């Protein structure tokens, strides 16, 4: 949440209009609703910030690498898949550069490599998205070093700056 607020501030300072999917940290917003908010805003990109919980460490970026089906809906479109991959690549370059020697680089992965994505074909938020979408697993919470990094002011700011630079790169490389 804190990284999201810092990211919002950085992007707005660069002239971006940012639409948050929830007004406060503890509000529950389902992934389908998040996609609908981004769709209604005609967003250039939906960025979903997460923290993973695995035996691994570091950051990873996910994008829809194929269509999935959820609640009778098939998505996303081929164009959204293509643009989402481009967004993931742009953000990854900036994160890899900024966070080098700080966090392990888990690379870019398709939604189909996740537990949910392997069952549905893509993550729920991607299936319902009509705009490019990237899910960023910023750290692995169960890794003490990762968690300490993201709890620190410097870590939060570094993460937000890296993501903002990647968003800017993606949006303006069209």
How would you briefly describe this protein structure?
This protein has helices at residues 2-13, 31-40, 78-98, 115-120, 124-127, 144-151, 153-172; strands at residues 46-52, 59-63, 68-70, 73-75, 105-110, 133-140. By secondary structure, the chain is an alpha/beta fold.
Describe the structure.
The strands form two sheets. A four-stranded mixed β-sheet has the order 1-6-2-5. It has a two-stranded antiparallel sheet with strand order 3-4. The model has no long low-confidence stretch (mean pLDDT 96). The chain contains seven helices and six strands; from the N terminus they run H-H-E-E-E-E-H-E-H-H-E-H-H. Helix 1 packs across helix 7, helix 3 packs across helix 7 and helix 6 packs across helix 7. The radius of gyration is 15 Å and the shape is globular. The chain has 174 residues and is of the alpha/beta class. The two termini are 29 Å apart.
List the helices and strands and how they pair.
Elements: H1 2-13, H2 31-40, E1 46-52, E2 59-63, E3 68-70, E4 73-75, H3 78-98, E5 105-110, H4 115-120, H5 124-127, E6 133-140, H6 144-151, H7 153-172
Parallel strand pairs: 1-6, 2-5
Antiparallel strand pairs: 2-6, 3-4
């Amino acid at each position: 949440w804190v990284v999201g607020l810092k990211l919002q501030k950085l992007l707005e300072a660069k002239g971006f209009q940012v639409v948050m999917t929830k007004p406060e940290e503890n509000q529950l917003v389902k992934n389908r609703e998040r996609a609908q908010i981004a769709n209604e805003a005609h967003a250039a990109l939906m960025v979903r910030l997460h923290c993973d919980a695995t035996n691994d460490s570091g950051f990873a970026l996910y994008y829809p690498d194929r269509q999935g089906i959820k609640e009778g809906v098939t998505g996303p479109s081929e164009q959204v898949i293509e643009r989402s991959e481009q967004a993931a690549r742009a953000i990854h370059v900036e994160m890899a550069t900024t966070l080098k020697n700080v966090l392990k680089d888990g690379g870019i992965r398709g939604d189909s490599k996740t537990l949910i994505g392997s069952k549905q074909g893509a993550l729920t938020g991607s299936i319902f998205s009509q705009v490019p979408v990237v899910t960023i697993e910023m750290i692995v919470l169960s890794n003490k070093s990762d968690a300490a990094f993201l709890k620190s002011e410097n870590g939060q700011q570094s993460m937000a700056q890296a993501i903002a630079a990647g968003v800017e790169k993606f949006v303006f490389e069209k």
